[in-house]
Amino acid sequence: MSRWRQLREFRTEIQWTIVVLVLAGLAVVALLPGAQLAGRDSGGTVSPQPAPGAPAPPPVDPALRTGMQPCPQPRPGGPAQLAGITGTCMADGAPIDVGAAVAGRPVLINVWATWCGPCRTELPALQEYSQRPGSVPVLGVQVLSDEAGGLQLLRDLGVRFPAVHDAGGGLRSALRVPNVLPASFVLTASGEVRRVDPGVFGSADEVRAAVSRTLGGQS
Questions:
Q1: What is the pLDDT of residue 14?
Q2: Distance set, CA 156 to CA 29, 96, 114, 124, 163 (Å)
Q3: In this structure, what are the phi and psi dihedrals at residue 175, rounded to the nearest 5 degrees?
Q4: Cα(8)–Cα(51) distance, rounded to whole angstroms?
Q5: Residues 6+ apart with CB under 8 A from 146
Q6: How far apart are the first and last CA of the chain?
Q7: Residue 63, SS3?
Q8: Strand, helix or coil at 135?
Q9: How far apart are CA 128 and CA 207, in angstroms?
């Protein structure tokens, strides 16, 4: 075998080795946590990643808060998972200790964002549910979107149940909110946080059934 032929074969082997290593690296990246986003059978919306250096959110017009129901008054105790977690009450712009606000009774927490299409379907259903006798209190949590836009959306949809703006993401992290919105959780009277079966609520009846199922027959 000539020296030139040996060199060509050696170069070919190096090229194929590089290709294999690149493909292997891509496969490893694809398997890393967070590289793949879980889907949702009923068509939720994948959370966008915050852009670095994003502009400051617009100021909130106080008129947008008009008609919003006040946030729950703090109580002793509360779920350990939410201990020390604060947000902004969208009714008045004041900070609120979320763990203390939901202490001592079952509460339905619904996590939403302005860019989430299915959330626009759920929010009116949750509003109707919140007005029914015997319903558990509902607390909305707006994430990954500016508060002014959230208040405008709630006004447009006629939604007025208590809501918290999670500007810093602490509440979203504490609840372990998935990458697909909307997401709902039921807090039991004993302080246990239970994820509601994935799905987009289309009616108050669906909300009531899901809450009852999650609480083990109580609504």
A1: 58
A2: 42, 25, 12, 10, 15
A3: -80, -10
A4: 47
A5: 57, 58, 114
A6: 83
A7: helix
A8: coil
A9: 9
Query: H helices within the chain, ranges in order?
Result: 3-30, 98-101, 117-130, 147-157, 170-175, 204-214
Residue 131's CB: how many other CB atoms inside 10 A?
12
Contact call for residues 212 and 108 (beta carbons, < 8 A): no
Q: In terms of Cα–Cα distance, which of 159, 151, 160, 170 is closest to 99? A: 170
**What distance in Å separates the CA atoms of residue 42 and residue 197, rounded to the nearest whole number?**
11
Distance of CA 60 to the CA centre of its chain: 22
- Lowest mean pLDDT of 40-49, 101-110, 131-140, 205-214, name the range: 40-49
pLDDT digits (tens, 9 = 90+) for 32-50: 333 333 333 455 777 665 5
Cis peptide before 70 (omega within 30 of 0): no
- Give 128's contacts (C-beta < 8 A, 6+ positions apart): 203, 204
Output the CA angle 19-24-30, nearest 5 degrees: 130
Cα separation of 46 and 109, whole Å?
A: 19
| Cβ–Cβ under 8 Å, residues 151 and 57 | no
CA distance 118 to 199: 10
